[in-house]
Design brief:
It contains 2 helices and 42 strands. The chain is mainly beta. The protein starts with a strand and ends with a strand.
Length: 521
């Protein structure tokens, strides 16, 4: 019954965690003792400088190879000597404490032509073959523990955004305070005890019949990723995110705004874009639709409002609800239908964007002039847009519209109607954003929205002064609008020195009042 503790340094891993226990030609054995054994990765290994230390008793070696011994623990340190992961309490389980077997799994056979190569997944599966307890860090533990992880395990993931790999056994999973996901994507690989069927995940009851027929229980989970079989997902009254992967899946979002995600289809063998129709029928207050996934299978979706696409050519058609669509590198098409619908351009699933997006919703077709990857796309009946992390140009026409430029020097035009422009991260400040037609007065006045918790000194009652500097008390944040250069600033320190950051240029605006702001939590 191993106890696994992940530290904040596990959160900083930049490669697949399976390689932590997988030696290569650049790995050197650095200790062979009766009670300890160690090896250090070097050279081009993705975890170069990391050291794996095994402790126990009665370790024996033949020609330098571990042939016997009982392990009690494994500690992994990074190149600075900081503990990344510790695995203790191995000595009580004969399935997990065999040093000779661990040596073969982690370092491979002495003669590579006559035995297995090193296999980090097998090494981790060996260590976690019992009823284990896994304790997360307070960081983002999104690098899942690899391997079969057999046994009835307990996961306590603490804070941060985490990902937990579903595995054999009746497991209990506590997600913690961040955005946490359970995934069964490992079922795409037939290793060890193969999965036998799709999962049935219910966010209301907090139970999953897993891909091996066991029952997992969970709390504090916001997203679930399925298996290679036909999966069933049932949402609750919160915002849920489901990913079916391969198979003819059923996704029922329930109340709130729920997401169907296909961004990992490519990485699990998907070979085509998705085709989305969120409303083929409507009854009982619910939209029912269909999505052809990245493998060519047909998913049934009920009360799904948001869809994340693939790196291929995706087609999105919405429902009468307010929908949000995210394409990627492909030549995508969007049709919002009813509701207040949004397209987001900041996601990509393999290739990085080469330039900011150019979008003109006043056009009859080809509204997306450049999606950041050089594609021209149709986006019809769309009322809102999120830009990329680069320099974007977003143009709307008549109607009330919503825009977020995100990072980069963005130029936004709201057109006629009462438009809304939003910021929720200080990284969005200081980039040279411009709103070309902001209307500060009248029945169609526009709004500037800010999530107050993201900005130092900002509160729900923060005010605005027209001039060149803040007039609020020292340490009390205030918006400053300088009509001489048409620029809105945020000053987190008030009359104190420093703290002023440019937000956006409001072309031709003479003055602002508190009615032009929407401050929210």
């Amino acid at each position: 019954m191993a106890r696994v503790v992940l530290t904040e340094h596990y959160s900083n891993l930049e490669s697949w965690a399976g390689r932590l226990l997988e030696a290569d030609d650049d790995t050197a054995i650095t200790a062979r003792r009766g009670g300890s054994f160690a090896f250090t990765h070097g050279g081009d290994h993705p975890f170069s400088g990391f050291t794996v230390t095994v402790t126990g008793r009665n370790f024996t070696y033949a020609d330098g190879v571990a042939v016997d011994g009982t392990m009690t623990g494994v500690t992994i340190r990074n190149g600075s000597g900081q503990i990344v992961m510790s695995i203790t309490n191995l000595g009580s389980n004969p399935l997990t404490n065999d040093l000779s077997q661990f040596y073969t799994n982690a370092l491979g056979a002495t003669n590579g032509d006559a035995g297995p190569d090193s296999d980090g997944k097998a090494a981790m599966s060996h260590l976690l073959a019992g009823d284990d307890t896994i304790i997360g860090s307070n960081g983002n533990d999104f690098r899942i523990l690899v391997g079969l992880n057999a046994g009835d395990d307990v996961f306590d993931m603490k804070g941060g955004d985490n990902e937990i790999g579903g595995s054999v056994g009746n497991d209990r999973i506590v997600g913690g305070s961040g955005f946490d996901r359970i995934t069964f994507r490992e079922t795409h690989f037939n290793e060890g005890q193969s999965a036998t069927g799709g999962i049935d995940a219910n966010m209301v009851t907090g139970r999953i019949r897993d891909a091996w027929g066991f029952t997992d229980t969970f709390t504090g989970i916001e997203a679930i990723e399925g298996s290679r079989f036909n999966d069933v997902f049932t949402g609750n009254a919160e915002r849920n995110e489901f990913a079916g992967l391969r198979g003819n899946d059923t996704l029922n979002g329930g109340d709130e705004r729920d997401t169907a995600s296909y961004q990992n289809d490519y990485w699990q063998g998907g070979f085509r874009g998705i085709v989305v129709d969120l409303e083929t029928s409507f009854s009982g207050g619910q939209s029912r639709g269909q999505i052809r996934d990245g493998f060519g299978n047909r998913d049934t979706v009920i009360s799904i409002e948001r869809v994340i696409g693939t790196r291929y050519n995706d087609s999105f058609t919405g429902s009468r609800d307010n929908n949000i669509f995210s394409g990627g590198e492909g030549k995508d098409s969007y049709r919002g239908e009813g509701g207040f619908d949004r397209v987001e351009f900041h996601r990509f699933f393999g290739d990085e964007m080469t330039r900011g997006v150019v979008v003109d919703f006043t056009r009859a077709s080809g509204q997306v002039r450049n999606d950041g990857f050089g594609n021209v796309e149709n986006a019809i009946s769309i009322e809102a847009a999120h830009g990329s992390e680069l320099n974007d140009r977003i143009i709307f026409g008549a109607g009330d519209n919503y825009m977020v430029g995100r990072d980069g020097s963005d130029t936004m035009t709201g057109g006629a109607g009462s438009d809304y422009f939003e910021w929720w991260d200080t990284e969005h400040f200081g980039d040279g954003d411009v709103i070309t037609d902001f209307t500060a007065t009248g029945a169609s006045a526009d709004k500037l929205g800010f999530e107050v918790g993201a900005f130092d000194g900002m509160t729900l009652t923060s005010g605005v002064v027209n001039g060149t500097k803040a007039t609020s008390a020292a340490g009390v944040g205030q918006f400053v609008y300088n009509a001489a250069n048409d620029t809105l600033f945020w000053d987190s320190n008030g009359r104190s020195a420093g703290g002023m950051m440019a937000i956006v240029e409001l072309t031709g605006v003479a003055r602002l009042t508190s009615t032009n702001f929407d401050l929210f939590e």
